[in-house]
């Protein structure tokens, strides 16, 4: 980003356009995934023939060319997990040496991964146990690993503290002593509260097994019958699936690191006919899911935020915008615009209505207070609210896009299969301007 800032200032502009930053980060994630993920597969799969199959399967998976090219923390976690497994494998293969470099890199990777996502220990717990005999024989390796883990953790805490205390005038050392920002701890405290997780949706413990894995792997699930042999990769993937199933809130993206780990651990059917039919189903599955998840699923969030960032406040009349039933909006895409963003996540419809309605009370500059509401068209509760309050409130549609599906809002139990598909099938995301009708 420093290079991008330097190039941009040469054009005579001080602030880099958020759209350019967004696509630059997407390109960066593509390059990192293309290089580091394939490199890790080459390290983990020893046989040249099996390695070629593993690389093809990982590269042709829609997960690789949709999720892994986004700046999701899960995409970064995938790379960290893969290279942590590589470091563990290197240490185990080099039994007669301390492998200090690999141990140091492993400590830094784990610390960075924990600062990025608190779920990374689920993928590394069981593979890490294989290192215990090595650490007993070579205690220097454990000392080096622990040292780099601590130093990287301190660096991560310092960076987060600086980021979340931008206006502080105190020396960094004083802030670290009095009010450090420890992101993994905050994340752990937040995610151990059921009331917090209920805002995102609660799921049964079998959600990952019956929904997440089939959605991520599709026909590749059938290849579990052709696992080559137990390896650190498959142990990591399966143990993480079990451990993450204990968490009440479950999303398919939580299992992203399991996809390359599993695809690099399986063989194709030996029968030529079975192999042909499997490849056909694999291509169809990834083509459909690639379009669905890469273009339509939550596809309107970034364009909507970019549009809001380009609007002048006196043109839109908005100083506060509520987001409901969408991914968390990336605030940095506003480009420094003073627009208060409130993420309502998956809040119940009645609570959302109370929050938005309460924010429209009063006047600003002699005019009724207006707020923005960004919501998917699939939210039929919003239709009923607009119709019910049309005598006292005004809903003005400022912007809309059809490239948006809210697949996180599936509720087959309440709406039935047909009802859910009809509702979710209403593609689109809308930015509403909500205000009250002035009293006469």
Secondary structure topology:
Elements: H1 2-9, H2 18-44, H3 48-60, H4 62-65, H5 73-93, H6 100-116, H7 120-129, H8 132-137, H9 139-164, H10 172-178, H11 183-191, H12 194-198, H13 207-217, H14 232-244, H15 258-263, H16 272-296, H17 301-310, H18 313-316, E1 320-323, E2 340-343, H19 349-359, E3 363-364, E4 367-368, E5 370-376, H20 380-388, E6 393-401, H21 412-424, E7 429-436
Parallel strand pairs: 1-2, 1-5
Antiparallel strand pairs: 3-4, 5-7, 6-7
Verbal overview:
It is a single chain. With 440 residues, the protein is of the alpha/beta class. The protein starts with a helix and ends with a strand. The chain has helices at 2-9, 18-44, 48-60, 62-65, 73-93, 100-116, 120-129, 132-137, 139-164, 172-178, 183-191, 194-198, 207-217, 232-244, 258-263, 272-296, 301-310, 313-316, 349-359, 380-388, 412-424; strands at 320-323, 340-343, 363-364, 367-368, 370-376, 393-401, 429-436. The strands form 2 sheets. The protein has a 5-stranded mixed sheet, sandwiched between helices. The protein has a two-stranded antiparallel ribbon with strand order 3-4. The model has no long low-confidence stretch (mean pLDDT 87).
């Amino acid at each position: 980003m420093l290079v991008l800032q330097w190039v941009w200032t040469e054009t005579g502009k001080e602030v880099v356009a958020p759209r350019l930053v967004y696509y630059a980060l997407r390109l960066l994630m593509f390059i990192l995934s293309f290089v580091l993920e394939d490199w890790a597969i080459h390290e983990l799969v020893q046989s040249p023939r099996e390695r070629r199959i593993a690389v093809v399967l990982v590269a042709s998976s829609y997960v690789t060319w949709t999720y892994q090219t986004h700046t999701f923390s899960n995409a970064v976690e995938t790379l960290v997990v893969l290279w942590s497994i590589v470091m563990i494998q290197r240490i185990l293969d080099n039994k007669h040496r301390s492998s200090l470099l690999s141990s140091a890199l492993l400590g830094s990777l784990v610390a960075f991964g924990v600062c990025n996502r608190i779920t990374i220990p689920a993928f590394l717990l069981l593979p890490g146990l294989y290192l215990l005999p090595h650490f007993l024989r070579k205690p220097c390796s454990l000392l080096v690993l622990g040292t780099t883990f601590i130093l990287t953790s301190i660096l991560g805490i310092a960076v987060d503290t600086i980021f979340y205390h931008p206006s502080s005038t105190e020396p960094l050392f004083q802030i670290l002593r009095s009010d450090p920002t420890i992101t993994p701890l905050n994340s752990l405290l937040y995610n151990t509260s059921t009331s917090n997780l209920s805002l995102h949706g609660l799921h049964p413990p079998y959600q990952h097994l019956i929904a997440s894995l089939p959605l991520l792997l599709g026909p590749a699930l059938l290849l579990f019958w052709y696992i080559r042999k137990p390896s650190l990769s498959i142990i990591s993937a399966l143990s993480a699936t079990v451990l993450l199933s204990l968490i009440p809130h479950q999303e398919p993206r939580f299992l992203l690191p399991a996809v390359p780990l599993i695809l690099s651990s399986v063989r194709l059917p030996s029968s030529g006919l079975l192999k042909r039919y499997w490849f056909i189903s694999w291509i169809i599955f990834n083509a459909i899911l690639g379009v669905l998840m890469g273009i339509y699923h939550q596809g309107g969030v970034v364009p909507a935020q970019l549009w809001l960032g380009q609007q002048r406040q006196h043109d839109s009349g908005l100083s506060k915008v509520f987001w409901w039933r969408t991914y968390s909006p990336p605030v940095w895409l506003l480009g420094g615009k003073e627009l208060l963003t409130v993420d309502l996540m998956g809040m119940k419809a009645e609570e959302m209505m109370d929050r938005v309605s309460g924010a429209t009370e009063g006047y600003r500059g002699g005019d009724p207070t207006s707020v923005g509401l960004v919501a998917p068209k699939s939210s039929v509760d919003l239709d009923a609210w607009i119709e019910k309050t049309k005598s006292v409130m005004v809903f003005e549609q400022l912007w809309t896009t059809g490239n948006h599906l809210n697949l996180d809002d599936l509720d087959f139990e309440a709406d039935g299969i047909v009802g859910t598909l009809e509702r979710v099938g209403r593609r689109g995301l809308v930015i509403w301007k909500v205000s009250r009708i002035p009293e006469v």
